[in-house]
Design goal:
Keywords: DNA-binding. The chain has nine helices and no strands. The chain starts with a helix and ends with a helix.
Length: 197
């Protein structure tokens, strides 16, 4: 097995084990020993790739973001020249974020509480910047295909949508928060804003 394949398999095992543990125990209660036991990997194999569980938690966040991007780009690459299907992929992701049991929301809130750790702070900054960058790319892709007006400022709008989505995710993590403005409302707002310019 090649080194890159081994790295991908190890990363995937760590991600799957960690996501299972987050759903079962929450972020705070998980130890590296839990991850070792659940993944079936040795400590040496794990510490070859990460220094602590927070780094694996960052991977969980990044994985979801990249999955949404891949789903969006897959729709575009299949020749879809309309707004609906690619936007539906983004909308599905936003709706999933509105679930209080969403693992990535739990990870996000946990990591926000660890922002004093320079490694976590840097990872959060990179995650935010990647979120904005992908939002901008999705808008620019729509503009290239003529389904989003050129008058939409991709930089500002991408940042706005990232802020709004993060707010939705934080709210979903607040126990018994009154949710009047739902994920579907946010998706409709984004759709309206992008199609009208």
């Amino acid at each position: 097995m090649k080194q890159e394949e081994r790295r991908q398999q190890t990363t995937q095992r760590l991600l799957e084990a960690t996501k299972f543990l987050i759903a079962e125990k929450g972020c705070q209660a998980i130890t590296m020993q839990d991850i070792v036991s659940r993944s079936g990997l040795s400590k040496g194999a794990i510490f070859h790739y990460v220094k602590n569980k927070n780094e694996i938690f960052v991977w969980v966040l990044q994985e979801r973001l990249e999955e949404t991007n891949a789903s969006f780009m897959n729709e575009v690459e299949q020749g879809r020249r309309t707004f609906d299907e690619p936007m539906r992929r983004i909308g599905d992701s936003i709706v999933a974020y509105d679930n209080p049991q969403d693992i990535t929301n739990k990870v996000l809130v946990y990591l926000l509480g660890k922002e004093d750790d320079p490694t976590v702070a840097e990872a959060l900054r990179q995650y935010y910047e990647r979120s904005v960058q992908l939002s901008k790319t999705w808008i620019e892709t729509g503009q290239r295909y003529g389904v989003i007006p050129a008058t939409v400022d991709a930089d500002k709008t991408g940042d706005l949508f990232t802020l709004m989505t993060l707010g939705l995710r934080i709210r979903s993590s607040i126990p018994r928060a009154q949710a009047i403005y739902r994920a579907e409302d946010l998706t409709a707002f984004i759709r309206d804003m992008l199609t009208r310019g």
